[in-house]
Amino acid sequence: MTSARITTGLQRITGGLFVGSALAFAVAATVLSSTFDWPDILREPAGVVLPAFAAGGASLVWTWFATAWTYGLLAVPILLLPAALGRRHDVALRVATFMGATSVVLALVGFLRWVFVVPPLARSYVEGDATTRAAVDAAWTAQHQFGGALLGEHLGQLLAIGWSVTVSVIILRSRVLPRLLGAAGLAVSAVYLLNQGDILATAVPDFPVWALAGLLGSTGWGLWTVALGATLWLRPIPAPTPPADAPLVDDSLDAPLPPTSTTHGATPVSAGPRS
Fold first, then answer.
1. What is the pTM of this model?
2. How far is CA 147 from the centre of its chain?
3. Which of 168, 175, 238, 262 sits at 20 to 30 Å (Cα–Cα) from 67?
4. DSSP tag of 1
């Protein structure tokens, strides 16, 4: 049926976008990590971060730009997922979709400040005198804690985890996708949540931190989105079977056919194209 083909196509597009955006972000993040010691450098003071950023030049700014927008691509498959799963009217999934898309926007704020906010701070820091450096240090800390720790990491990650947990629970309860995928989503989300300790420690120094939570959580979460996309691509969800008394549908016309009449040998008549 035409609608089944459309649904299958949407599932594959959504799956391909999940895989493509996750892999593109992984490549950009790997380059950023090798050239700027990201994400470890995020916890360093301005006296370490800003000179290193200034030394990176324009290429480092463009690396941050690429990292931001490859992650931003993730919003598209997140928004398409309810339709791809055939659950447009699932209230929980609709709420989760809003959470997931919002998390991407918040992460973009965190990433793009390295393109639009940090460069002038870095220049002022390396070119200024002691007074200027003290002022830039304060400005750096303010924007770093607000745009980075609060918006990008704390709220962005919490909303992303909320999205993956809700999707995983829906998978487990409805079996719309393999249950193993749902169980894996809950597991990686739990590990990723532990990374909040590192974020909160920037404001509460004695807060307990598990050093590996960020690496294991973010990597596992990214691999789970790849698995979600691959599953949508490789195992299209069957279209729901219509009830036995549902009217037949003419694929070429997309219009219901009236009941067949056999009285006096009359020939069945099909509905014409809708105007």
1. 0.84
2. 19
3. 168
4. -
pLDDT of 153 reads: 97
**DSSP track, 133-145:** HHHHHHHHHHHII
Contact 145, 203 (CB under 8 A): yes
- What is the distance between the alpha carbons of residues 110 and 147, in angstroms, rounded to a whole number? 5
Angle at CA of residue 19, ends 18 and 23, nearest 5°: 120
Q: How far apart are CA 107 and CA 209, in angstroms?
A: 22
Phi-psi region of 239 (alpha: psi -120 to 50; beta: other; left: phi over 0): beta
* Distance separating alpha carbons of residues 229 and 6, to the nearest angstrom: 17
How many C-beta atoms surround the C-beta of residue 171 within 10 A? Answer: 23
* Distance in angstroms (rounded) separating the CA atoms of residues 236 and 156: 30
The DSSP result for 34-103, as a single string, is HHH-TTGGGGS-HHHHHHHHHHHHHHHHHHHHHHHHHHHTTHHHHHHHHHHTT-TT-HHHHHHHHHHHHH
**Packing angle, helices 179-193 and 213-234, rounded to 10:** 160
